[in-house]
Sequence to fold (531 residues):
Amino acid sequence: MLARAHTFTIDGLTTLHVTVEVDIRRGLPSFAIVGLADAAVREARERVRAAIQNSGFEFPARRITANLAPGDVPKAGPGLDLALAGAILAASGQLAPERLGSVALFGELALDGEVRACHGTLAVAQATRESGLAALALAPARAREALLVEGLSVHPVGHLAAAVRVLQGGPADGLPPPLARVGRGADNADDAGGADRADRADNGYGGTGLDLSDVRGQHAAAWALIVAAAGAHNTLLSGPPGTGKTMLAQRAPSILPPMSREEAIEVTRIHSIVGTLHDGQLVRRRPFRAPHHSISTAGLVGGARRNSVGEVVLAHRGVLFLDELSEFARPALEALRQPLEDGRVAIVRAERSTVYPARIMLLAASNPCPCGYAGDEERCTCSESDLARHRRKLSGPLLDRIDLLVHLESGRAGQLRAEPLMSSPVARRRVLDARQRQAARLRGERVRVNAQMDAAMLRRHVALDRRGEAMLDAAHRSGTLSTRGAHRVLRVARTLADLHGSERVGAHHLAEALALRPQERRAQRPLASVG
Fold:
């Protein structure tokens, strides 16, 4: 007898529909699985056999062939166990097969028949709805994650016997109680008020309690961070050791706007597949990833092994912070060029290629020279060759993809007693207002923030006056501004205008944006005031 069940397998960040076909006929007892199954799927034979027997059902002592269609797509992971068991029970006459055609089954089976949760539940739930299936049966531990997909009936089943009950038209198991989550925001990720209430609940932002008001005496740098957050601009913090570069970067999450529900679903889906989503609920806050400078190229952009993703992908829709930028291996830094420009990572190997989303805001910190005191003749011990070698670590094409260069000055007397520029709640409100202006202006475009505008969008949304055009032409003629750099200056100028509530980009906005461009000749001296 033949029976079919539906499930899904995950390849990279892509979810693929798998039809489990089970044929049972007379012959020597055997159980074969075909269809490009990996080791975890092949081992399902023993898990499924024990789970069926320990759940009070009979495992057929016949020749069993299970085909995972389509046959040319690799199948990975233990999530196919439940579908295999359901198809075997239907093919052996122990389960009516009618509902197998409309319900997807996803879960690993323990030897006693317990259904265990698997990575990628949200992606599987989305694929279930897109495939036209009416319902998804899965482990209760991840059922709330699947409920994030609207229009899908979710059946929590804690045991194989419960799955059979559901497939026979009976009730599903109940949902487990939600995990307590402090400060993760209201149910609606678009509700800025809910996000603000969440911020107060968790003693700050992201559970850290860090606030921009902790930064004293670095007003230009604090303002540049606000500009970066408002337009999602790539930023490099440069300065001697101890000037507050890392301290400032760590406070970036406290001023970032909340994600829309669409963005939150994207981020949650990635972390669900990777296995870093532990509570099965929607990720509210933008990712903030800060890998160590010893990370490899594969660790940064992905591709260390099949379907592996890197820190760039895990930072999608959030911030990738690279502290001690000049200490990272140059190949790893050069690999950032594509994601910074295109918002995606393409991993190409001998037999296949995979594209991952990587729309990030890069935030980096670096010393101006190996000893960190470039420009201070009394303290700097670097030779000309040391300085040249240090500059070569950051290539021109990479620096050209950075919108803002912020130079932090050494502390002066009384700096720690100086008043802060503004607190995180105030800065965040300004960032939110600027983002709302961008959203209104870019409605109908395929991008959300100024940093993502292409040349055509810049022509439509950034109109300079005669003085501004003259300033931009002068920068071109001086050789300090490439075409890509000019586009990035215009994007930053547009963000500055949004922060000041201006519909038009003025010459003073452009001048401020030019002052923040990462030009090598400015890298060794403080920036002009940008407050």
Observations:
- DSSP finds 21 helices and 16 strands in the chain.
- Confidence is low (pLDDT under 50) at residues 182-207, 520-531.
- The first strand starts at residue 2 and ends at 11.
